[in-house]
Amino acid sequence: MANVSLRNLVKEYDGGVQAVKGINLDIQDHEFVVLVGPSGCGKTTTLRMIAGLEEITKGEVDIGGNVVNDVPPRDRDIAMVFQNYALYPHMSVYENMAFGLTLRKFARSEIDKRVKNAARILDIEPLLERKPKALSGGQRQRVAMGRAIVRDPKVFLFDEPLSNLDAKLRVQMRTEIKKVHQTVRTTTVYVTHDQVEAMTLADRVVVMNHGIIEQVGPPQELYHNPATRFVAGFIGSPAMNFLHARVENDAVHLTDGTVLPIPESRRARYANAVGKPLLFGIRPEHLTDHRPHLPGRADLIITPEVIEPMGMETMVHFHLGDARDCCARFEPTVHVEPNVPITLTVDMNNMHLLDEATGKVL
Amino acid sequence: MADSMSAAIPAVAQPRSSSLQKLARRRSSIAFLMTLPLICVILGLVVYPAGYAIYLSMLSRRMDEFVGLTQYDILIENDTFWLVVFQSCFFAVTAVIAKAAIGFWLAHMLHHIPTKGQRKWRGMLLVPWVIPPALSTLGWWWMYDPTYSSLNWILAIFAVPAVPWLGEPWWARVSVIIVNVWYGAPFFMIMYLAALKSVPEQLYEAAAIDGASSWQRLRYITLPMMQNIISITVLFSLIVTFANYDIVRVLTNGGPRDLTHLFATYAFQVGILSGNIPRGAAVSLFMLPLLAIFAFFILRGVNQRNKEMM
After folding, report:
1. Is B1's Cβ below 8 Å from some Cβ in A?
2. Is residue A9 domain-shared with residue A87, that is, in the same domain?
3. Do both A307 and A193 map to the same domain?
4. Residue where one domain finishes, among candidates A226, A261, A285
5. Angle, in degrees to the nearest 10, between helices B277-286 and B48-56
6. What CATH number should be reported for the domain holding residue A303?
7. Could you tell me the domains of chain B?
8. Is the pLDDT reported for residue B111 higher than 80?
9. Does residue B2 register a pLDDT over 60?
10. Chain A, nearest residue to B207 by Cα
11. Which of A52, A53, A88 sits opposite B203 (nearest CB)?
C-alpha cells in the first residue's frame, strides 16, 4: 500500500486538446478517493495516467515515493477494475483471478490460497469454474474485483465499475466495494460520474470539470461548503436551486422583488457582496414546508406547479424569481396540491451566495 | 361443475392450438419456398456433381460396367498415386503453415500501423491475392526459368550457384509451395487483421496491468481470442490448397517424374489426358473423407469455444 501524488499532471492529445490541465493531488495511504465529474472532465484520463495506460504529457505521477512516469503498467504494482470488467472470456473465473499471480510466477499453493480467499470475501466461491459468459453483470464485477484483490497491490484503480449494472445491483455492489475496502484497506482511486457513488464511497471526493480540479474534500464538506457554482450544482440530488439576486440592506433581493433577510450570523460574510450581480443558491432540502420555529428562516408563499410524491419525501416544483423550475423538499405528510398557494420556509442559515462573474461561492 | 369445466377446456384450447400449428406450418412453408432456389442451386452444383463423381468412380475404364470399389483398389496399389498423396499432404500442410505464420506476422505489423497509413499497405499486400493465380504463376514461371531466372541472377550477385528451381524434385516442390504461399498469405493476413481488430483493447490493458509482457499478451490474449478465426481460416485454406490445380499445372505440370502432382492435377492427367475418367474421379474423391474428418474436428472445436465465450 502506498501514497499516490499527482504533480502538475497534464494530458494533451494530438491537435493540442488538453484533457487534463495541470492537476495536483495527494492521496494518502489507505485512503479511498473518488474522482467525480461529467463526461469529458478528464477523470478517466487521470486514472489511466496513474495506471500507465496513457502517456503523461507533463508533470509527475508518484506511487509510494517513486516517480512512475516511465514505468510500464506491469511494474507499477497497481490493479485496475474496468467499466466493462475486461475479464478474459477464454479463461474460467479461477484462471482470470489467478492470471496476474501466474505471470508473476507465484507458487501454485499460494495462488490457490489467494484466489480462494478473495472468492470468499466476494462470495463467488461456487463460480470459480465458470467462464465469464455464464455470469451475471454483478458476478462479473465481483470477479473483476477479485482479480484486483488477489494481487494485493499498492493501489486499486476503479474506472466507473458500476456503470453497466442496473440501479438495484449498483447500490448492492457499492456496499460491497465499501466493505472490501474496509477489509483490505488498500489505497483506492475510483472514477465515477455518479455523485451518489462518490458521496457514499469516498473518504475524499475530487470534483473535476474541464480538466481541472474544482474542489477536493470529504463528502460532507463538499455538500455543505461547495467552493464553486459547478460543485454546488453537481453535488446533491436534486441539484441546488440557483436564482439571480443582489444583496441590499442585509437581505437577498430576487429579480421578482422577493426579499429574503440574511441571518445575522452571515451578514458580515456577505458585506462585500452588496451591489454585485450574484446567484442565490439553496438546496431543495432547505426549501421546506412551513416550519415556524426554524431559526433564521424566511417564509414565502408559492404556488406549486408539479408535485412528485416520493414516499419518504415530496418534491414540489414551483416558479420563483427568475428560476423557471425551483425544487423544494416537503415532508410526505404535508398536503400539497398543484396551483394551490402554500407557505414555504427558506432555511437561510444554509443559503449560498455566489459571485456571478467568477462562479465562486462567497 | 368439474365435468362442465373439463368439457369446456378442450373446446376453447383446441381451436387456438390448431390455429397456432397452422401458423407454424405456414411459416415453415414460406421459409421452405424462400430457400428453395438455394436448395436447387446446391442440388445442381454440389450434390449432383458429387453423386455423379462417386458413380463415375465405380465404373470401368470404358464406363460400360459397374465395378464397385475396383478403381480405388487399383489406386491403392499404385506407387505414383502414393507419391501424389505424399506430395498433396506435404504441399498443403507446409503451405498452410507458412501462409498462416506469414499472414499472422503481416496482420500484426499492419495492426500496429496508424489507420491512415494502414490502408495503403493493406491494399499493396492484398495484390498477390487479387491477381488471377494462373497469370501470376506465369510470372513466377519466368522467375524460375533455368535460363532467364531473375532469382538465379540475384543469387549470382552473391556468388550463390544457380538453383534448378523446377528441374530438381525437391526444389520443384519448394517452388510450387513458395508460389502458393505468395498467393495465399494475404488472405490469412486480411482475416487475421479483422480478428485482431475485434479483440477488445481493454483485455490488453487488463493483461498489461496484470503483469503480461508483449509476448505474454500475444500468447495468452491474442492467440486464444483469435483461435476460432485461425481454425476456420486454416480449414478453409487447407481445403483450397489440397484442391489446388493452376499453380502446379502452369509451373511444373506435375513433373519432374510426377513428383509435384497434387490430387487435382493427377486426377486431370489420369481422367482427362489419359482418358480414364472413372480413375480420375476416384483420385479426386480420395481426399474427401480425410478433409471431412479434419473439418469435423475443427468445426466442433469452434462451436465449443463459441458456446463458452460468446
Report:
1. no
2. yes
3. no
4. A226
5. 120
6. 2.40.50.140
7. 79-309 (1.10.3720.10)
8. yes
9. no
10. A100
11. A88
The whole-number average pLDDT for the span A153-173 is 88
Bond before B114 cis per omega within 30 degrees = no
Q: Nearest by CB to A90, from B206, B216, B225: name it.
A: B225
Q: How far is B303 from chain A (nearest CA, A)?
A: 13
Among residues A172, A193, A226, the one where a domain terminates is: A226
Q: DSSP string covering B23-51, please? A: HHHHHHHHHHHHHHHHHHHHIIIIIHHHH
Q: Contacts of residue A100 in chain B, CB cutoff 8 Å?
A: 209-211
Domain that holds residue A287: 241-355
Contacts of A54 in chain B (CB under 8 A): none
pLDDT for the residue numbered B281: 94
In angstroms, the CA A42 to CA A35 distance is 9
Question: pLDDT tens across A275-333, in order?
Answer: 888 899 999 999 999 888 888 888 888 889 999 999 999 999 998 878 778 999 999 99
The answer to whether residues A196 and A261 belong to one domain is no
Cα dist. B2→B7, B13, B14, B16, B155 in Å?
8, 17, 19, 22, 99
Q: What is the model's pLDDT at position B141?
A: 93
- The residue of A83, A84, A103 whose CB has the most chain B CBs within 10 angstroms, and thus the best one to mutate to test that interface, is A103
Provide the ipTM. Answer: 0.83
Same domain, A258 and A182: no
Q: Which residues from B are below 8 Å from A84, CB to CB?
A: 200, 202
Is A133 contained in some domain? yes
CA distance B184 to chain A (A): 29
User: In whole angstroms, how far apart are CA A150 and each of A53, A106, A132, A337?
Assistant: 21, 11, 18, 56
Interface test with B, best of A85, A90, A101, A151 (most B CBs within 10 A): A90
pLDDT at residue B116 is higher than 50: yes
A360 located within any domain:
no
Residues A200 and A340 in one domain: no
CATH number at residue A18: 3.40.50.300
On the CB side of A164, how many CA atoms lie within 13 Å of its CA? 15
* Cα–chain center distance at A344: 30
Do A321 and A209 belong together in one domain? no
- Domain identity same for A195 and A340: no
- Is there a contact between B305 and A90 (Cβ–Cβ < 8 Å)? yes
A233 lies in some domain: no
The C-alpha atoms of residue A120 and residue A257 are separated, in whole angstroms, by: 63
Question: Best of A53, A156, A160 to disrupt the B interface by mutation (most B CBs within 10 Å)?
Answer: A53
* Counted domains in chain A: 2
Phi, psi of A336 (to 5 degrees): -125, 140
Residue with cell 440530488: A237
Question: Per-residue DSSP letters for A192-222?
Answer: ES-HHHHHHH-SEEEEEETTEEEEEE-HHHH
Give the per-residue SS3 of B151-168.
HHHHHHHCCCCCCCCCCC
Beta-sheet pairing, A259-261 with A251-254: antiparallel
Residue B268 is which amino acid? F
Do A19 and A67 lie in one domain? The reply is: yes
- Per the domain annotation, does A232 fall within a domain? no
Q: Cα–Cα distance between A47 and B115 in angstroms, integer? A: 26
* DSSP state letters, A231-287: HHHHSSSSPPEEEEEEEETTEEEETTS-EEEPPHHHHTTTGGGBTS-EEEEE-GGGE
Residue B52 main-chain phi, psi, to 5 deg? -65, -40
Kindly report the backbone phi and psi dihedral angles of residue B298, in degrees, each rounded to the nearest multiple of 5, phi listed first: -65, -45
pLDDT(B263) > 60: yes
Instruction: State which amino acid sits at residue A212.
Output: I
Q: Let me know if B95 is exposed, middle or buried by CB neighbors in 10 A (0-12, 13-18, 19+).
A: buried
